[in-house]
Prior knowledge:
8-stranded parallel β-sheet
Amino acid sequence: MELNKEKILKNYSDIENDIKKYSPYPEKVKILFVTKYFDLEEHQKIVNMGFNYFGENKAQLFRDKIKTIDNPELTWDFIGRLQKNKIKYIIKRVNLIHSIDTISLLEEVNEKACEIGRKVDVLIQVNVSHEESKTGFSVSELSDVFKIKADNVNIRGLMTMAPLTDDENKLRKYFRETFEIKNDINKKYNLNLDELSMGMSNDYREALIEGATIVRIGSKLFE
């Protein structure tokens, strides 16, 4: 992929302006730079442009980038589907795992975090659209998540992916439902979940309107 610095910086600035325009609380919103497209050399160029908050989809690539281009100024989230046998590749350095989609995965992350003596922030993935092609908890399953004793995991909020559609009303409906689920959980369990990871390059504006605090942006930065 061609890395045009001026284009990337302009597109990033446009998204920042959209955050100010559409979000009810723009000061809370973070742009997560999705870097699954880049090999090590290309990712280093992105770092050199001044970006420092990245989302990786593959555990082995996450591991390789941490070894090669990491520095204390960089923040690394994991946003892909996480296999239990690959938790070891990310557990020491990951800032936030967006994709906890089963109770057994939550328990395994907790166990691995306990082994290294750290507490790991995670998001619970919710399948609000009920699509079979997407993983994540249904609303009815969420109560089981918050009964789990997992002292080395800190649940920060929810993540969702809306269906691929150009219907803005449908998109907003799914994002609004996720926002409301978060609020209901906070009230029911006396929690303070504060993160909503929702919205990607094609639907981040709708997600912002409905309360996203993290938007996961990849291809939009290179248009």
